[in-house]
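Methods: example folding runs. The two proteins below were folded one after another, and each record is reproduced exactly as written to the output file, sequence line first and structure-token line second.
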Amino acid sequence: MNLERLLWTKNVRPSDGTWAYMNFNIGQLFKLGWKATANKKDYFNADQLERNDLILLRQHGYVSHLVKVLNRQAEYDDLTGDFIFYRIVEIVWKIDNIIPPSENYKADKIFDFPEVLHFMGGNAMKLQDLPTFQEAWNHRGGISAFQSHVESKLELI
């Protein structure tokens, strides 16, 4: 699988402590949500991703999904609740529904640096813009080396 568009990670943390998006399977689509804020900062974050970009979703210290962005821009959902900005994504890979997941899918193992566990909040983070990502991966070949590493860890080859 070609992961050259794997440029993002996003921490997902449902308020009820459950695991998000686990009821969807590979190939299925869902609305990946961003919390709304008064200054609409999160809308602009959701809108930064481009169509076909890939995002590693993390939750509870694990990588839970690899998703592909399908729509061209963030959309607004007028439903009640915290998450009203969203991107339509397709699941490319996901962990098994066994909770807790295998230790192989711990975020610090998939990313191969422990600082990833400190990437909190619900906004998408562009990997190449994160200083700790640069420190961990620039001397090993940068983003393309990371993408190959993730491909082998998720057994996407």
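Second run, written to the same file directly after the first:
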Amino acid sequence: MGDMIALKKDSIEIIKHFFDGAEDTLVYAYLDGQMGQAWVDQLENPTCAMIIVGNYVFYGGDYTSEAAKALVGYIPKSYKDAYINAMPDDTGWGALIEEAYKGRYRRYERYTTVKDMHAFDKEQLQHYIMQLPAEYTIKPFDEALYQKAMTKEWSMCFGLNYASAEDFLDRGIGFGVVYKGNLVCGASSYSVYDGGIEVQITTKEEHRRKGLAIACASALILACIQQQKYPHWDAAHKGSLELAEKLGYRFKEAYHAYSLRLKEA
């Protein structure tokens, strides 16, 4: 089978049924027409589909079909990174991924949290912000802070899925921790969907374990509450889950994902 077909924005409806019951907000981001791209095996009655948002890929449809095998192994030319995270559901997609990326995948555990806008204690979040060490400052993302984030590999994730600073400031939301004029920690909307965001939080290595992440995340959550946007948190490791729980999130369940190396070593 040849290349898969990129789906145009006005054709999103033809694959929505493949993702019925999906709970990942990155899938929402695409299906709501906010961001990301999708590919199908054929435009007339597709049997399966693949959604990519940022560095994450999702599969839906008939995983027993020949088209599904081809779809899992397909990497669009527009995707330039060496790695991608595959987020299969609990059906047969995982087996297809392991076959297609034999020797080039790492299966790991992630942790979902309960979606509950009433779970947060505003006073506690304000307390975390006030505990920020005096030499650090929290600032909302503006054009200058966005541009600083996009110049460093560790912080590009904050604005990865936006076309420009203007696009981020129009649709996204973020806060940065600044030290001596430099961005050293941030919490932002990795993606946006109708009614919420997916939280992205990262601290520069030499500034970790100083309370920056919890303070920055608290500012982001409070801003989301004010704007009536839900700040969804999906934890990539136990440390992230522990931080989320301190902020008020409740653990829902663990699931498996894959880190895929897209090129042979």
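Comment on the second run: The first helix runs from residue 25 to 31.
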